[in-house]
Design brief:
2 strands, single chain, mainly alpha, 12 helices
Length: about 300
């Protein structure tokens, strides 16, 4: 029960306490990863694999040590799991950034929205208009609902504190070195593949929960399921397309298309068959993300309880 209570408590703390501007555990890990990269970087797959395994092993080791200490007292285990959940779940920050983007777009403040977009994703905002900024925001909110909320909760339920920390390490490394730029095409390959594997189940769980929760925000479960079934597989990512398609269907909008990153341009397939998104859809996407996150917390709390009892 300690694992289940810890997961739900951690989500509640994340909802109440905003991430600190400095000293957040994920930011500290990113700083350590960047310093390590100065020593390990070579334009090759094997050095990248070593870099990923060292950092992943370190995160998992800290998680194992923390969980071992918590076994001495149930309350310590609850608090340790809650702290790890708070550190690895990013639901409140995602909602805050998405809400701010929705307000800027609703007020017609395009330059402010362009300045804020890098807080959500790595796209180049300079040439994006209001519609494209709204699309980028909804896609980012959808993908991060899976990556920053559902996935860490799933791995916390399945593997406890080590699962929480190891997943966040993999996902952070993918964000840092897992893209297809010239520098990281080979060095970041293992990090990218590890993130793909870690998100295979959570992404599909996030899509299913999105469809289930769609009516809460005035969306359509049937459209979400249809877009998920018909369009997700065409996305270049084996995981991001799952939840993005579900969000597109749930909100009855069209996502995908030409996507400009700083390292290049990708022509993505269209997800959904509705209208182009606007500021109102951004606000509804944030609401859908929050509801989906709480549904995931409840489900993963139950899963953690079941796994814990079986292990006991």
């Amino acid at each position: 029960m300690a694992r289940a209570f810890g997961i739900v408590l951690g989500v509640a703390v994340d909802e109440v306490l905003a991430d600190p501007r400095r000293g957040h555990p994920v930011a500290l890990f990113g700083t350590a990863a960047a310093k390590t990269e100065r020593l390990t970087y070579r334009d090759s797959v094997l050095p990248g694999a070593a870099h990923t395994l060292v950092l992943l092993g370190g995160a998992a080791g800290i998680g194992l040590l923390t969980e071992r200490l918590g076994k001495r007292h149930p309350l310590l285990r609850v608090l340790g799991t809650a702290a790890a959940t708070w550190a690895t779940v990013g639901g409140s920050t995602l909602a805050a950034e998405g809400t701010a983007m929705g307000r800027s777009l609703d007020a017609g403040e395009i330059e402010a929205a362009r300045a804020r977009l890098p807080h959500l994703c790595g796209r180049d905002p300079e040439l994006l208009d209001g519609t494209e900024l709204a699309r980028a925001t909804v896609e980012s909110v959808a993908e991060n609902t899976s990556d920053a909320v559902v996935a860490p909760l799933f791995w916390g339920a399945v593997a406890g504190i080590p699962g929480l920390l190891a997943y966040r390490a993999v996902n952070t490394l993918d964000a840092m070195i897992g893209h297809r730029s010239e520098r990281y095409r080979r060095f970041g390959m293992v990090a990218a593949r590890a993130d793909d594997v870690a998100n295979l189940i959570p992404a599909r769980l996030a899509a299913a929960l999105t469809a289930f929760c769609a009516p809460v925000v005035g969306g359509s479960s049937a459209s979400a399921l249809r877009a998920w079934r018909l369009d997700a597989g065409a996305h270049p990512s084996p995981n991001a397309g799952q939840v993005e398609a579900a969000f597109a269907g749930a909100l009855q909008i069209r996502l995908g298309g030409r996507t400009v990153y700083r390292h290049g341009v990708e022509d993505r397939p269209v997800l959904g068959d509705g209208r182009n998104p606007d500021a109102g859809h951004v606000t509804r996407a944030v609401e859908l993300s929050r509801v989906t996150g709480w549904a995931a917390a409840a489900l993963c709390g139950l899963l953690g309880l079941a796994v814990g009892r079986r292990a006991h």
